[in-house]
Request: fold
Amino acid sequence: MWSTLHHDPPQRPPHGPPPCPRRRASPSPPIPRQYVLHDGWTPARQIAFIEALADIGSVEGACKAVDMSQAGTYNLRRQPGAESFRKAWQAALQLGVARGSRTW
Reply:
């Protein structure tokens, strides 16, 4: 029988300055696909690619992160209705490159 509810004690803030908020790439609305394949460009995989591109700053690296080919990625980018994906790609790439240049 449950006698009481247990609550975790309040957490103390860590010492030092608060962490900087991490800027994320804005995911674009997924590009509509004629066929949705489990190993193809699903909406979740499109978003994961944009996020990986923002983190890595490399199309090749982002493709590897989502297990898709570069040729297929560039083909997706050229599809009708992909304007927002192209904009998100460009913004994510710029963010990723800027992040990479700060680590060197």
